[in-house]
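Category: protein sequence paired with discrete backbone structure
Discipline: computational structural biology
Format: plain text, a pair of labelled lines
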Amino acid sequence: MVKRQCMSDEIRHAIAQRIYDGTLKPGQRLLELAIAEEFGTSQTPVREALRELEAMRLVQSEPYKGTRVREITAREMAEAYMVRAVLEQRAAELAAAHFQNNVAALEATVVEICESAERGDIDAYAQGNLDFHRGIVAASDNQVLLHSWDALRFEARIRVNLFRKANSIVARAAEHHPIVAALGRGDGKAAGLLLREHSESFASAWAEESKSDSQDPNTPTPSCSVESSSTVT
């Protein structure tokens, strides 16, 4: 059981990476048998991995049509970041007392984020960014708020955003410093506003992209894709 679960995790991670970096295209079919042959396993862990990817909204399955890579449109990204902006603003307000004079861990995470950005390590940047934002939400000590944030599946969205807009990550990394400073002072209102502005800037960028795509019928719908080998078709 443990071995099967490890294989399921390995397959899920590999396919997700192929979607993030565009190797697997939106609409591309994922064949259980081909994936099982590639990883030298049965189809059971493949099915488990595909179910997890569907929960992450990276793939979609339909009866008699199989599983395909799901599109993530610019509009969907914009709407998700708008919701995140509100959630994180409130989270910071609630978490400020926890972080007052207690931001060493957050500061260390921001250092990692900045270093990852400078060397162009998208995966490390994405993980650090996820840890930073989710850490603030978790510190709010509001389980409904945390569940709502998790439901947006930002682990996936952050990577989609980075692979699509990787040229701006150094500037984006620096935006975390004033957030930490405000939390260190126990100023939840200021930290919340900074977090909201941070997320809303992403929402605005995606909204503009969505608008331009809707105005140009020849422009393909913005979408995200993942990593695949020739055996995954």
In short: The radius of gyration is 19 Å. The chain has eleven helices and five strands. Residues 81 and 203 are 5 Å apart (CA to CA). The longest strand covers residues 21-24.
